[in-house]
Amino acid sequence: MTTSSAQLAGFAGLLADETRAAFCLALLDGRAWTAGELARHASVAPSTATEHLHRLIAGGLLAEERQGRHRYVRLAGPEVATLIEDLSGFLAPVPTPARTLRAATASAALARGRTCYDHFAGRLGVALTDAMAARGLLDAANGMALTGAGRDWLTGPLGVDPVALRAGRRPLARGCLDWTERRPHLAGTAGARLCERAFDEGWVVRIGTGRAVRVTTPGRRAFKDLLDVAALG
Fold this sequence. Notes:
Elements: H1 5-13, H2 18-26, E1 33-34, H3 35-42, H4 46-58, E2 62-67, E3 70-75, H5 78-89, H6 101-112, E4 114-116, E5 119-121, H7 122-134, E6 138-139, E7 145-146, H8 148-155, E8 174-177, E9 184-187, H9 188-200, E10 204-206, E11 213-215, H10 217-227
Antiparallel strand pairs: 1-3, 2-3, 4-5, 6-7, 8-9, 10-11
């Protein structure tokens, strides 16, 4: 079974619109948004947002959830997040001068640490990835692979359920080129479980309602003990 040029062009066209691209980038925070929230985020009319969302859902990039009268959308899965991350990695970051102190603060927070769908990115994500590689938990020399020691670390000191690491369609570990650091951070199932554990334990908390995160005092102690990583955001 092969993919036709028309199919490929049609699929690529789903992201060949600034509003639809803005929706997908916003949904990289891994959470579900309402159509109204996305409309306000992209500064478009609700009717326009609805039209674009219908195309993204029909094309398989977004999934719809209903809760009572409310309708939410989210990325259809980690494979969609991977696609968007990989496409973003081809683009050089465009410096955008912050017009207000609030915008400058938000930009600095995103660069310091953020979620990229369900794993860590920014300086936080890269620092954790480098520390795991330095301790032999990741093999970063040949792509990004979780070592036996890495699996033991995740299911031992970190406390991840071994069932949550079983092989599936998603890679256990993969490198994701960080668009602010221009170096890879850990993605895949291992990256997701590390991020999930950090949130569950209160080592990391979100800043406001966006993707930016900050490491708490218990988190700094935990990352120091687990990976000998200090001075995290």
